[in-house]
């Protein structure tokens, strides 16, 4: 379990640009050495909590991000428009393929056609 100083360090580290603080300044603010802060950052538990805090911070700003993408898209930025459409689910990387075979080319159009095809295949199997 993380201690209070570690959670405080995570608050600074999760800020964009670490809140304009160096690693040494963050360590000083939470009352540890830079080496201790470095050791904390190597811990999986610390890293996981840092990622969660960054994710929470990002979620809080998502509306601002979408608005910025919208403004860029309106100004003609194709990359921003694509990202905006992807983030709203209106554009995916999924490739859809259309079946262009003619109805007459399909071997099983009706239930009767399917039954006839099954009977034909069974006849080949028994022959």
From TrEMBL:
<protein>
    <submittedName>
        <fullName>Helix-turn-helix domain-containing protein</fullName>
    </submittedName>
</protein>
<dbReference type="InterPro" id="IPR024978">
    <property type="entry name" value="Homeodomain_phBC6A51-type"/>
</dbReference>
<dbReference type="InterPro" id="IPR009057">
    <property type="entry name" value="Homeodomain-like_sf"/>
</dbReference>
<feature type="domain" description="HTH cro/C1-type">
    <location>
        <begin position="21"/>
        <end position="40"/>
    </location>
</feature>
<dbReference type="InterPro" id="IPR001387">
    <property type="entry name" value="Cro/C1-type_HTH"/>
</dbReference>
<dbReference type="Pfam" id="PF13022">
    <property type="entry name" value="HTH_Tnp_1_2"/>
</dbReference>
């Amino acid at each position: 379990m993380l201690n209070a100083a570690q959670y405080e360090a995570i608050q600074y580290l999760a800020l964009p640009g670490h809140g304009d603080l160096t690693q040494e300044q963050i360590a000083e603010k939470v009352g540890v050495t830079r080496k201790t802060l470095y050791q904390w950052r190597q811990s999986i538990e610390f890293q996981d909590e840092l990622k969660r805090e960054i994710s929470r911070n990002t979620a809080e700003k998502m509306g601002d991000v979408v608005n910025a993408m919208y403004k860029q898209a309106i100004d003609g930025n194709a990359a921003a428009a694509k990202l905006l459409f992807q983030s709203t689910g209106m554009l995916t990387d999924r490739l859809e393929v259309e079946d262009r075979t003619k109805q007459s080319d399909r071997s099983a159009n009706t239930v009767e056609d399917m039954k006839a095809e099954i009977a034909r295949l069974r006849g080949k199997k028994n022959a």
